[in-house]
Amino acid sequence: MDIGVKISGTTHAILIGIAIFGAPIFSSDKENPIQISEVSLISSEDFAALTSSNIPILKQPEPVVEEPEPVVEEPEPVVEEPEPVVEEPEPVVEEPEPVVEEPEPVIEEPEPVVEEPEPVVEEIISDSEENPIAPISTEDNIGELNQETNESAPPKPAKVISNIAVEAPKETIKPEMKPEPSVVEVEKKDEQVKELEIKPSAAAEESSTKIVTEAEEQKSELVPSSTSKPKSRPKNLKVIKEIKTKPKIKKQKESDLIKDAIAAEIAEKEIKDLEEPKKPISQPLTKEEEQNLVLNIRQCWNVPVGLENDSSNVIIMGIKLSIDGNLEEDPVNLSPNSGVGMIQAYEAARRAVLRCQPYKLPADKYETWREMEIELDPSEMVLR
Amino acid sequence: MNYLFKICIVGLTFFLSLNAPLMAETKPLRIKITQGVIKPMPIALAQFSALGDSSPAYVDQITSVIMADLVGSGLFREIPKSAHVSANTDFNMPVKFADWRVINADALITGSVNIQGDKLILQFRLFDVFAQKPLGEGLQFQASTGNWRRMAHKISDAVYSRLTGETAYFDSKVVYISEQGPKNARKKRLTIMDYDGANSRFLTDDNDIVLAPRFSPNNEEIVYTSYETGVPKVYLMNVDTLNKRLLDDQPGMTFAPRFSPDGRNIVMSLTNRGNTDIYSIVLDTGRKTRLTSGASIDTAPSYSPDGRQIVFESDRGGRQQIYIMSASGGNPKRISFGKGSYGTPVWSPRGDMIAFTKISQGRFHIGVMRTDGSNERLLTASFLDEGPTWSPNGRVIMFFRETAGTNGVPEIFSVDVTGRNLKRVNTVNHGSDPAWSGLLK
Fold first, then answer.
1. Per the confidence metrics, is the pTM higher than 0.80?
2. What is d(CA B244, CA B190) in angstroms, rounded to the nearest whole number?
3. Yes or no, beta carbons of B165 and A344 under 8 Å apart
4. Does one domain contain both B150 and B209?
5. Looking at the structure, do residues B266 and B384 belong to the same domain, yes or no?
6. Which of B120, B153, B209, B298: disulfide with B171, CB 3.0–4.6 Å?
7. Do B89 and B226 sit in the same domain of this protein?
8. How do residues B332-359 score in pLDDT, each as one tens digit?
9. In this predicted complex, what is the ipTM?
10. Which of A41, A310, A326 best probes binding to B when mutated, by most B CB atoms within 10 angstroms?
11. Angle between helices A247-275 and A235-243 (to 10 degrees)
């Protein structure tokens, strides 16, 4: 019985142990010895924030920044060396000058140290790039932000009135500032505005012609429908035809309207032509120029292994070039295919196009090569 | 008339207004490039940041393995660190692409090494320098410090795959026959190592001659031929426990074994009463099926990746040639018709090509051909090249080359499927009969 109890006890103990600690025999560590997970890319702003919050990380780039400093310091003693050479002929007078110059570099040294934190601060504040004057008066900015967030339209005119500072000039004018007439005019206008504001309806219309002009203009356009402008619109023709009264006068009006319509269209075209920069008629590239371009890109195009002699990986890229031959924007993939290896084929083609810039092409034919489609076809490439 | 005149005027203006923009639209200039260059891609490996308990020497070891993998593939060229303009002191630091572009790097790898006790955390990111964009998400690998080489290989695999669009082969093993001693009394041992020759481990002692090892599809077992009983017999061995068992105890010699793609069958040659034929054996039941017949020597069978066909060599036509038959046997079709003899065919893991050994005009070659026998290309030529084996991605072939003379020794070499990048693989002793595993999980 004792043996049986012992056996039972030990087996139960083993089982409990396995249940608690797990059995190494059944562990799955062997199957997955290496755990793999993705690492997302963080933005430069996040990195700046990360590094600004961590002091030890900030300390790391400092020595890198400090490296150029000794390079700057090195030429200084070099400059000082010739000075003592000059000092020999004129001994006493020039000696203090280098003494004065010496502390200057000493002052310059701490300056970069002061400058170092500045870019860090700029990076943090860089989100508010819209306000270059922001450092002058931060309170105003806060006020603006509050107005924008709390109320949308009304605060803007209120802001204008407040900027005029109606009450403030009065105080300034009262003592001595009479000679400035413009200020007085502004004051008078402000007074008028104040008076008009007291009168409710009539005055509001007059004032609204200046301040709330757009809404009232739209209304006025809708009400007087038969002004000179609508005559040129062909829609009015139909309206006139439908009325069918006084035919002779109508015919005259029709002919006039047609002429007006034609004249208006011609005028519009002329305006458009004037507005749009006229594209100069550009000559096509010569065969030699095209061949040079082909040879240039060919040298830049490193075809990925496995894609050679493969017709399913033809890449067509649309590119836009500036007059200096550089790409104005990223190349656009115009390839219709989307097979295996197309990503790598496109990336290789993109590298080729990016690497080859600037393209040396005749400037007088810029309009010809301003936009191009580059087709990269590895199907004819043969190994060896 | 007046009415017609009006219509004409209106129509004319309408036509002009429509036609003008059409006339203005011209197709952009189109340039067609049909030839490029094929050269190793210049790649920069930024100094990995060392975190935790990791030392700079440890970081250097890891980065050197990564670069050795990539450069060793023949597809990449390292831009030496001495040429680097900027350094990424922090893994999360934004990349200054201009600094890498100026040294003409197409791609940039950044990373960090973090050791916390026995735990190693490796992180890396890959960037397209000219496009100034990251190539995919970065990856983090976490394991015990003892797996640092594997983790480095995994980074290489990820970089290789992302830049070439193909699966990689760096995190893989090779089993081969380690050879030592004079040619007439050579000691042979079954040995396993990383694909680059590191981490070699003997699986057998040198008491018995062993030949032609092959990995199982899950890389956990090895099937090989041993003279343990005096005659060549096929054995099955577990790589970790080294437990082995005789596959078929029936009379006769068994040799040239190879797993089926699903790992359930083994196909091999069996010589009985002077006739050598190909048999398949079901591992679970031991049931044996004869796949070829006749008086010829049929050997070196290799399954297609889909398991439906078997390629093998046979002298049924008078000389050694390559044939393909169904996996269940029957209807062998000859696919090699060049001058000389063909042997040891191995089906590519991609399924598109067959590697082989060719003997022609007194020289040995490693070559490849399509599965229908077309497009034969010889990749090597020497006194004795033999025993090709494919990398897991079907882009590289490993084989062994024996030098001539009484002091001639075998060495393992690898060559790209294009015939480029022929190089010797490091082994602890001399090596022969390499067999490449699949990509490790």
1. no
2. 13
3. yes
4. no
5. yes
6. B153
7. no
8. 999 999 999 999 999 999 999 999 999 9
9. 0.80
10. A41
11. 180
